[in-house]
Amino acid sequence: MSQSDVPGAAAGTGTVRSHRLAVIGGDGIGPEVTQAALTVLDAAQARFGFTTERTDVSLGADSYLATGDLLTQETVDLLRGHDAILFGAIGSPKVTPGVLERGIILALRAELHQAINLRPVRLYPGVPTPIAGLTPERCDLVVVRENSEGSYVGGGSTVHRGTRAAVATQGSTNTWYAVHRAVDFAFRLAEQRRGRVTLCHKTNVLTEAGALWLSVVDEVAERFPSVAHDYVHVDAMCMHLPVAPERFDVVVTDNLFGDIITDLGAVLQGGLGVAASGNLNIEGSAPSMFEPVHGSAPDIQGQGLANPAGAALSLALCLASLGEGAAAAAVESATAGVLAELPALSGAAMGASTSELGDRIAAAVAQSGTEVQSSLMTQLAAVQAGLAD
Ligand code: IPM
Ligand code: MN
User: Is 177 an active-site residue?
Assistant: First the structure.
């Protein structure tokens, strides 16, 4: 197929679509999985006829230890000048837990108004899952995690710290505005999918926050008559997810519950190495940021033992959000195809290194067709188009 056959390649017009991409490799295995994803991106660009201008942005433990800075205004401004951010991982044993996580990851999500953390839970055909008897047909759901508040807003206090009289309090903030934004997004997404939204919360104990979430779901549901909705407590969700994931299409939930249930979701998909996420700025006021769900795994850093699938699938979400739907779908199916060939999903047992897997996914992208099949990637593009109206 020639370049001019590629959909949207703008053949003959002299203009090629170009996207400004900031790349934050970060700590631990972050840089190596991100590098593998960039190899895949190179192949997608060549195959689908677009370009990217990439800026490496140095953030993480090393730059913090060298400069004392976590996230400066200058870095935020630099990131704002991009269309999207690819993010590897942040976290290091050299820094007290919480400093980098709060000071960089959570700060970025907040500064860039990334209201939604989109976390697909999809088992691809041929990929081994530790859940006995689970099949791909039964495991295709999306968690819409509220990404700006709940117990992640910070605050809290401790009196008599370090003594036996210590009293620590830490609350959870829930505004109608942010809850509504997440719930509305979930209904829009479900409308493009199987038409079911499940609210996951703990309304029997967190009665104040729970009542707000329930009332917002009822309010939003009225605008989406074709979408059914139900409710599941977060503890029950941990039971249903492994045994009956087919019950769920779009799960909308609070920040902390979303954090917890998506690690369980990752297990269903084959493990943390496979799970992808997008921190979405749905107003288009700042770039969205795409990151594998796994962390920095410093114990295996630099040895080529990390599975780059989570990073590659996050790249697919990134491409979908940039309007490169065909490339996004190709990256997703190429990654799924390579995953299905692996004897194991992590470490030396994968039988190939991180960069070799990146090369294999890239080679599959180079060979892929350009027809766009319906997938989360096309659904996401449709939701974004609706939000822009
Ligand atoms: C995640 C991570 C982060 C979170 C941490 C590192 C702040 O666990 O992206 O799931 O809790 O959101
Ligand atoms: Mn997490």
Answer: no
